[in-house]
Structures are given as structure tokens and as C-alpha cells.
Amino acid sequence: MNTLKENISTRDLMAFVALIRTGSFTAAAGMLNITQSAVSKRVAELEQKLAVRLLDRSTRRLELTAEGRAFVISAEAILQQFEQSVGQLRSLAQGSTGELRLCSASNMSTQIVAPVVGGFMETNPRVRLSLYDCQTRKQMIEHIANGSSDVGLIGGLPNQDHELSGEFTLTEIAAVREPMIVCFAHGHPLEKFDRITWDQVAAHPRIGLRSKFGVGHVTGAIEQLGPLGDRYVMSVTMINTAVALAGAGVGVAIFPCYVVRGGRPNISWRPIEGTEHDYTFNYVHLRGKALSGASRVFGEHLRAFLARLPEAT
């Protein structure tokens, strides 16, 4: 049962504790950067709200009553706990503590997320980071919907329809302008060129990505810019499978540049002329749910990493 006549504020407690610590109204006023009369008023209001006398006042010195001696211990503990709580809240908001549960397609995990994790953990060692690899967009959405992930990382063309239901929304993390690339095995005839034309790509059998899987829809849109024809040796579902097949010499494969950002030692690749395009990276999260501080800070690390274009190998 609440027996207080009025709510007690932290300002009241701070004035009382400062007065006891310093021993005078003048010193307490200096500590709190307020006037002496303000300190006196707050302490008097505190006593009124508690309906208890905390101080015996005389012309020579201040003395705590028995109730005051008991209460000052509690008041100091309350203020200390309050300061700790505020500090913890600020750390969470700034992203230096807390938890980040992120999900993404496996190729994006290896090529974009993994290279960023080391630097993020070094500067934010108190953040607990969990990463879930997803094989399909549907699986990613399920992770977010059931609460096992806070955000998902996806890429795509600007204004692309990601086919999300109304309960989800996108927050842009980074926008880059980069070329499409063609990947092939070490020693492939295309390796001697610095940049590749569409005609050169069309001269070699290709490994395709099925539409609606991975970046198949993006690749399909960009391929329309060039006369590639239908010379497919096979089509696959996953980007990593296409990369492995290209590295094994089965054919060449076309991807957005981000596919090689984290390094692909088993393949060579070159940019394709005339394919520069805007590409965005976004967080997917529940609509109306604010991004955590850790999510925002990790997004800043992602943005810095994506601002650097990789060098062809």
C-alpha cells in the first residue's frame, strides 16, 4: 500500500544525499549546481512528502534524526541503482551492450556479415551476437516472425518488391553502386582481361540461378542489359553452389559484386562493362518494432565495409 502523500522525485533524494555528504546547504548547492534555497526547499519538500522529520536543524550544525540516519542509506542505494539503470539503458541505446540476433542468406553471411563481425566484436565486446544462416527468404521471415531473430539482412535493387507481408518493413543500411561480375575458374581464358564485355561472357557456357532464389531475380534483371542468349550449362538454387561449380570449371556465373566482397579464393572474377547499378542492403524487421542500439551500430559497420569495392582476383 502506498502511504506517501506525494511522489518523491530523484531531485528530492539528490538534494538530501548531497546535503548529508557535504554537511552544509552551501556545499550541497555547489555540488548540484543549484541555489542554496533550492536545496533547502527540496529537502523540506522531501520531509513533507514522507511525513517524517529527517534533520534536526540548529544554528551550528545539521544532525540526522534516527529516521534520517536510516533513510539516507536507502536514499543513497536508490540513487546508485537509478544511475546504474540509466547507464545500462544508455549502453543499450548506444549499442555497446545487449544482444543482436541476425539472420541472412548463407552467402551474405559469409561474404558480408562475417568480415564485419570481428571489428564489431572488438569495439563492442559486451554485445552478444547470434547469426542464423537461412536457405530461403521464407525461412528468414519465419525467424523474425517467431522472435528467434531481431532483424534479417537482405539485398536488392532499389524499389524492388521483396514480397513482404504488411507486418514486416525494411530499413535501409547501405546503398552502393557497383558492376555485375562474372566468376570463373583459375586459369580460365577470361582471366587475362581486366574487364569483361557481354560478348565475351556470352561466348562461354553459364551457370544460372533459378528465379526467386538467392539473387536470381536480380541477376535476371541485369542480364537483360546484354545479349547473353540461352547458353546455360545448368541452373542451381544456391549462390555458393554456383560459385563452387564455376571454380570447378563447369562454366561461368554472373552475380552482383557483393558475392565476392568477403573473398573467394577458389575462383577468379572480373567486372562486366556496362552493368553498373544501384544495389541496396536492408534490415527486415517487424513493422513498428524499433531497431536496437546493437542493430544500428552493426549496420554502421556494414555500411563502412560495403563502401569499399573489392579488387578483382
UniProtKB/TrEMBL annotation:
Superkingdom of the source species: Bacteria
Record keyword Repeat present: no
One Gene Ontology cellular component annotation held by this UniProt entry: cytosol
One of the record's GO molecular function terms: DNA-binding transcription factor activity
InterPro entries: HTH-type_LysR_regulators, LysR_HTH_N, LysR_subst-bd, WH-like_DNA-bd_sf, WH_DNA-bd_sf
Keyword field: DNA-binding, Membrane, Transcription, Transcription regulation, Transmembrane, Transmembrane helix
Protein's UniProt name: LysR family transcriptional regulator
Upper lineage: Bacteria, Pseudomonadati, Pseudomonadota, Alphaproteobacteria, Rhodobacterales
